[in-house]
Design goal:
By secondary structure, this protein is an alpha/beta fold. Helices cover 39% and strands 16% of the residues. It starts with 10 loop residues before the first helix and ends with a strand.
Amino acid sequence: MGEYRHEPVLVREVLEALAVRPGGLWVDATIGGGGHAAAVLAASAPDGRLIGCDWDPEAVAAARERLREFGERAEIHEGRYVDLPQWVAPGSATGVLADLGVSSWQLDAGDRGFSIRADAPLDMRFSRRGGRTAAEWLNQATVTEMETILREWGGEPRARQLARALDAARRRAPLRTTGQLAAVVEQVLPRRGARRHPATRVFQALRIAVNDELAQVAAGLRVLWDLLAVGGRMVIVAYHSGEARLVKRFARGLGRDYEVTGEVDRPEFRRPRPRRLRRVYPHAVRPSRAEARANPRSRSALLYAFEKIGE
């Protein structure tokens, strides 16, 4: 494994949104290389504790090394954030954080298959301990499935044409590398000198499909909320519209003063109940211009922060 490098985004904003202070139990559900976790542990000194996890075993190893200086105050596990109830008691967390982005190391690692810049095996799994690779998904999916993920998760206007081109290419020979995939996309969407590669959205959609990311986010939001103590805060950093929609839908459900008892949200199906969530900010927080210039990968980050005001 090469050196795990990742520049955490919105660090100051994350600390403010979580209202980090000395003491408390803090949870980092996507610990990555430990950048946010280190900042939280420093700000919660001398007795704040942090429990974190990551699906990627290489990230876990890097985080353990980075957080070694904090000793027993840092506890790190390999697993998805839906696994956190194994290590964190319900209602015990002072604050919870989930940064849903792919790390710079994962994007840059030549053998992970996340990036267009290196011709590598089409893998894209956050954990290489199991599950289908991107190549397996791409060569087994129906044309309709490919079109759907390209449109819904990649925001690709020419999803149908791309799906048909990918189908034609795999019929000639299985698609196995990032270079093969990028070349097929460029046949449909010529680059013509553009700075952004035309396959960027295709790679994003395929990565989301391989890791079942949106289903993980939908389930994980509820898990993280249940870990949080009343008065605690949950901070989510999202990077694309699918994640953002799930976060906003979750917040709407807990932020209103009624629950829906029928299939649709209509007055006759509403039952009053206390609000359980307060938005810390009325809108998502974005990186400053300075941060976006220094770290271009932060430009799409959207920080949402919520306070738990009731069970």
